[in-house]
Design brief:
mainly beta; Thiol Ester Dehydrase, Chain A; two-stranded antiparallel sheet; disordered N terminus
């Protein structure tokens, strides 16, 4: 199932432009458990960051089947909490494929079925940059296919 979303895509000159398109299918979907909570009783942000990294890697490996390492995660601002029992979906799309790196945008949506605010809630969006490396961990070019 897809739904409309705004996507940040680059044009031929490297300038960013917004374009409306269908949301890609979820790279990862996870039901949040009590073991993932922080002292406030909500899901620990580090758990969400870990899943963002994994979801981005799933997408990045479509373009670079070799070894990838996470080089950077751009600003992550949590705009809604995640609770135990929420089904959290991590939607990933490729933003840019460079010579040795891949930038992936990951959107996090929590689906709350119980509680005071049932429905879907946007939690955060992040851009993650992966670099393809060889066995010695040196950057290597991504083969365009």
């Amino acid at each position: 199932m897809t739904s409309p979303t705004k996507s940040l895509m680059g044009d031929a000159c490297g300038e960013a432009r917004e374009e409306s398109r269908a949301r890609p299918s979820a790279a990862i979907r996870v039901s949040m458990m009590p073991k993932d909570t922080n002292a406030m009783g909500t899901i620990f942000g580090g758990i969400i960051l870990s899943y963002i990294d994994q979801a981005g890697a799933v997408e990045a490996h479509i373009h670079a089947p070799g070894n990838l390492v996470t080089a950077a995660m751009r600003e992550v601002e949590f705009v809604a909490p995640v609770f135990v029992g929420d089904l959290v979906s991590f939607y990933a799309e490729t933003v840019r494929v460079g010579r040795t790196s891949i930038t992936v945008r990951v959107e996090v949506i929590a689906e709350r079925r119980i509680g005071k605010e049932p429905g879907k809630h946007r939690v955060t969006t992040a851009e993650v940059i992966y670099v393809q490396v060889d066995q010695d961990r040196n950057p290597v070019p991504i083969e365009k296919g």
